Each structure stands twice: as C-alpha cells, then as structure tokens.
Amino acid sequence: MWQKVKSRAAATLAGAGLGLLAGCGGPDLADHAGQGPELELERFLEGRLTAHGVFQDRFGTLRRSFVVDVLGVWDGETLTLTEDFLYEDGSTERRVWRLVQTSAESWAGTAAGVVGEATGEEAGNAFNWRYTIDLETPDGTLRAHFDDWLWQLDDRVMVNRAYVTKYGIEIGQLSIYFRRETPLAPAG
Questions:
Q1: Which residues touch 174 (CB under 8 Å, ≥6 apart)?
Q2: How many folded domains does the chain comprise?
Q3: pTM of the complete model
Q4: Which residues form the signal peptide (predicted)?
Q5: Closest to 127 in 3D by CA, of 166, 160, 94
Q6: Would you say residue 84 lies in a domain?
Q7: What is the pLDDT of residues 111-134, one digit of tens each?
C-alpha cells in the first residue's frame, strides 16, 4: 500500500515540477523597461486595426488561422475594443473588450467568456495581458489561460505572442500581427 502512495506522490510532484517548468523561461516585463517606442496602449489601439493570426498546438501544428478587424474607442476612461474574427473555415466571432487603466502602467478588463477580470501591465514597448477564458470549440467549451505578450514595433505595427495553458500545461501558442490603418499621430 505504501508503495502505491509513494508512487502517486512522486507522480504528483513530477507533474507539479513540469507545471513549474512550463511557467519558466517566458518573457520578463522588466526587460522591456526603457525600450521604445514607448507603448501607450490607449493611443495605439484607438482607431481601426487589422490583425492576422495563427494558433499552433503544443507540437507546432497549425490548427487555426484568422483575420481580425479591430475598432478601438478610447473615451478617456475606458478603452473598448470590438474584435470581429473571420476564421479560415468561414466562421466568424465577435469579442468586445472593455479595458480600464488602473494605474500609469496597469490595466484591468472584461469580455464575454472571460472568467473574472483580465489584468495587464505596460513597460517600455511591451504589454503583458493575463486572463482565463471559456472558448467555444467544435468539441465544446474549453477553459484556458492566456499569457499574452504584445510589443509595439513602430507607429503602425504591434506583434502579439500568447502562451495558452490548461491546468498549467501549455496547449498551444497564438501569434498575431496587428497593423493600424493610419500611423500614430505624434504625442502631445
């Protein structure tokens, strides 16, 4: 009996260790402090943007591709992002995010399907956005955690890399390329 208990304990510890390793080695927001161009999320995402993206499973297999039309509206307090997705199979989806700046570098937000509240932080040219969401899939609802990393490259382009996990184990990665219809106007 003790042998079974020890085997289960070892398996549990090994699983926990793998979960910890899966969370290590990702980007560090502090590495982006002072890097430019300085990201002001509400400025960059205001207006019309187009995004192209792919989702790859943890083995690197392309599972889905899509185009997103994004409309960002900043009213001085809330950044509302309306995202209209068109997937390669012709299906569509709309997600509306409402983000509120909670400090000079921090944000909180909600959208349909998001469990609780999404939280994010800016530093330099980067934004790290974390949330848990219930996604509708052909096989039913999938609850997944997203660790989104966005980097502003210039006044028109932002890239996004999202690490998607379930129970602490990576199930895939999302890569998205955003392009503003018009360049950012000079700050001031």
A1: 53, 54, 55, 56, 146, 148, 160, 161, 162, 164
A2: 1
A3: 0.79
A4: 1-22
A5: 160
A6: yes
A7: 999 999 999 999 999 999 999 999
